[in-house]
Design goal:
By secondary structure, the chain is an alpha+beta fold. Helices cover 54% and strands 20% of the residues. It contains 13 helices and 14 strands. The strands form three sheets. It has a six-stranded mixed barrel with strand order 5-6-11-8-10-9. The protein has a four-stranded antiparallel beta sheet with strand order 3-13-1-14, with helices on one face. Strand 9 and strand 10 form a beta hairpin.
């Protein structure tokens, strides 16, 4: 009997009991999905770390220093061109090729705004893409074209709209000045854990703002220099001589250390989840073996007929073994897809501005299919062997 015919016969047999087949592979789905979820998030963290430390064409790396004001309502940016001159003229100045100031700390910042001709301090978030849209109350969120070209549109919170315009609906179309530019209110949104600031603007629109001062200093460190040492030296210098040292603090953001801490947590989770997944796969394997034994018992006459018309022991064994492998591989594929979807949902709830995305690699696919196939072979071998060892004379009796 040809291998293709054996496979088709095995698939046909599984279709006869779809509910039982599905219930048998649930354990495999859970086990594979658990591991793939952690792997996908881990791949996303590694990708974020790679992007964070990616060198420029000249081999430069970045060091970042944040300013935090003691009075959160003061709206102070904390870093000015005087601080830039201080760093450039210091002992570490020759190690730095470029110094930039930004009002952004991650994807958020603070600046002075004007609403209804009155000056007010506003906290804002920049939106780079439509992956995580805010919970809109009225109006419309930005289009992708708005984000790409940096349209002067703005989203404001429902509470800010009520406070200044009477209602969320009344705010639509009104003007709000943020920094040096006027923006038109396109919609209002409800505050949540991801969008806690007063307003949201396109990232490209923010890029037009003046960089004479800011809450973040970005140092481009020359090739061959240690960005951590340069960043720490700059932090120490600003803490002693910075223009706003008396009204806030300067902190070097050690992203490498942060990524390392996240990786440690993920490694611990991976070990724990892998142990749980191993138990789940073992139990699922027992379920597959039990189902195959039942299938062999129920199909004794079928086995006898096939033997009588010339099927060999290897034909019988391969059919039942392939049934077992198909069961587990289907479970592995469902687990792979489920794990990826779960990982995507989990990354949306990760706090902060790390922009972690779930990533499935080819190695993850090979792992899911490989483990599934292995479970099918190990736990399907004995039932398949039992079917192949049946004696035609005993069956006829």
């Amino acid at each position: 009997m040809k291998f293709r015919e054996t496979v088709l016969t095995a698939l046909q047999s599984l279709k006869m009991n779809p509910k039982r087949s599905f219930m048998t592979i649930i354990g495999i789905v859970i086990g594979i999905a658990s591991v793939i979820t952690i792997m996908a998030i881990g791949n996303g963290v590694n990708k974020m770390a790679t992007d964070q430390f990616k060198t420029s064409k000249s081999g430069e790396l970045k060091a970042k220093i944040d300013y935090y004001g003691y009075d959160e309502d003061a709206g102070q940016k904390g870093l000015s061109q005087a601080d830039v001159s201080l760093i450039k003229s210091s002992d570490i100045g020759h190690k730095i090729s470029k110094i930039e100031l930004s009002a952004l700390s991650g994807d958020t910042g603070q600046t002075t705004g004007i609403i209804n001709d009155e000056s007010t301090d506003l906290s804002f978030t920049v939106m780079r893409n439509l992956d995580n849209e805010p919970d809109m109350q009225s109006g419309k969120v930005f289009s992708q074209n708005d984000l790409d070209v940096g349209q002067n549109k703005i989203l404001i919170t429902k509470s800010l709209a009520k406070q200044n315009f009477g209602s969320a609906e009344n705010a639509i179309g009104k003007s709000v000045t943020l920094g040096n530019y006027a923006y038109t209110v396109a919609g209002t949104y409800n505050e949540n854990d991801r969008y806690m600031d007063n307003v949201i603007i396109p990232y490209e629109a923010f890029q037009r703002e003046s960089n004479d001062d800011g809450a973040v200093m970005i140092l481009s460190v020359k090739k061959g220099e240690n960005p951590r040492k340069v960043g720490q030296a700059a932090e120490k210098m600003l803490s002693k001589q910075g223009s706003s040292r008396n009204s806030g603090s300067y902190t070097y953001e050690d992203t490498d250390k942060m990524i390392g801490q996240i990786s440690k947590v993920l490694n611990g989770l991976t070990f724990f989840v892998s142990a749980v997944a191993g138990i789940s796969l073992f139990i699922a394997g027992i379920g597959v073996m039990n189902m195959m034994y039942i299938s062999v018992s129920e199909r004794t006459q079928e086995i006898g007929i096939r033997l009588a018309v010339g099927a060999t022991e290897s034909n019988i064994r391969n059919q039942f073994l392939i049934e077992s492998i198909v069961l587990t591989v289907v479970g592995g594929l469902i687990g792979l897809l489920s794990g990826y979807l779960i990982a995507n949902m989990v990354t949306k709830f990760i706090p902060g501005d790390m922009h972690i995305k779930a990533i499935i690699s080819l190695a993850d696919v090979v792992f899911a299919l490989g483990v599934s196939t292995l479970v099918g072979v190990i736990f399907g071998w004995l039932p398949a062997k039992q079917a192949a060892d049946k004696n035609l004379i005993d069956i006829l009796r």
